[in-house]
Design a protein that fits this description.
6 strands; Arginase, Chain A; alpha/beta; 6-stranded parallel beta sheet
């Protein structure tokens, strides 16, 4: 990444190291992410867009909204990140829970990327599960502070996917695409307010075969790109509520870490670690 770029790419390394150091996971539980194949990407994305990224022939106007340096390295990383979430969904169906230590690229649309998102891992994984008849219906619960406009633009009209998003009302993306259930919260939302709304929202979710959980920690008060005033304890309570709900309904959970841009970034890492610890404790 260019020096001074606002995307904290090193957070992925820090998260892996923190999970191992705390012994929340062991080295044997870590598996390299496989590369997504073009046939998988094309269920969710236009061929022109995929090929344009691969060959490096998209215009500057087309790639500028992504906000990351475009090139072979980013294309390869995006393939692996997307493949990693597909692998996490398969692992969740077999084991009950799996997490990709990256991902949650919910701003990528069928024909374009934006907001640090190149390919939409939740859409690609959902459509593969449905195409292979691994699931009959998929639930996406998006608790990133930013609305998953790409999820909704690709999957919003499908009846075999249900998307629920709790997000900041006045935050990126400023042109939101309706989900099946959107809950927009005001700037400065506190732990108490958030958890009260989440509890009511969970009661409205339909029966499905798997939960895909976008567990963004950019809801923290310390987040540079967030609008909420949530604490570490509040985020932990959020995750405990979600995992307890999934356990009650017998749902396997595939998680991506979603957004996290705190200053210092260690606050985001602490919250990510807390999410995975809560999953281990509640879903084991």
């Amino acid at each position: 990444m260019p020096e001074g770029h606002r995307f904290p790419m090193h957070k992925y390394r820090l998260l892996r190291e923190a999970l191992l150091h705390s012994q929340i996971i062991s080295p044997t539980q870590l598996h390299p992410a496989p590369q997504a194949q073009e046939v998988d990407l094309l269920r969710a994305h236009d061929k022109r867009y995929v090929q344009g990224l691969k060959l490096g022939i998209l215009s500057e106007k087309e790639v500028r909204p992504i906000g990351l340096p475009i090139g072979p390295e980013l294309f390869q990383r995006s393939l692996v990140s997307c493949g990693g979430f597909m692998a996490a969904t398969e692992s969740a169906l077999e084991e009950g829970y799996s997490v990709l230590l990256a991902g949650g690229t919910h701003h990528a649309h069928r024909d374009r990327g934006e907001g640090f998102c190149v390919f939409n891992d939740f859409a690609v994984a959902s459509l593969k599960l449905l195409a292979l008849k691994r699931c009959r219906r998929v639930l996406i619960l998006d608790l990133d502070v930013h609305q998953g406009n790409g999820n909704s633009s690709i999957l919003g009209e499908r009846e075999d996917v249900f998307i629920c998003s709790l997000h900041g009302e006045k935050n990126y993306p400023f042109r939101k695409v309706p989900s099946h259930l959107d809950v927009a919260l005001a700037e400065g939302t506190s732990d108490e307010e958030y958890l009260h709304v989440l509890e009511k929202t969970l009661r409205l979710l339909p029966a499905t075969d798997i939960l895909l959980y976008q567990a963004g920690v950019d809801v923290l008060k310390t987040d540079k790109l967030g609008t909420f005033h949530m604490s570490q304890a509040g985020v932990r309570a959020r995750d405990e509520m979600v995992f307890a709900w999934a356990r009650t309904h017998g749902l396997p959970v595939a998680q991506a870490i979603g957004g996290g841009y705190s200053d210092p970034i260690e606050e985001s890492i602490k919250a990510y670690v807390g999410t995975i610890e809560a999953a281990k404790r509640i879903l084991s």
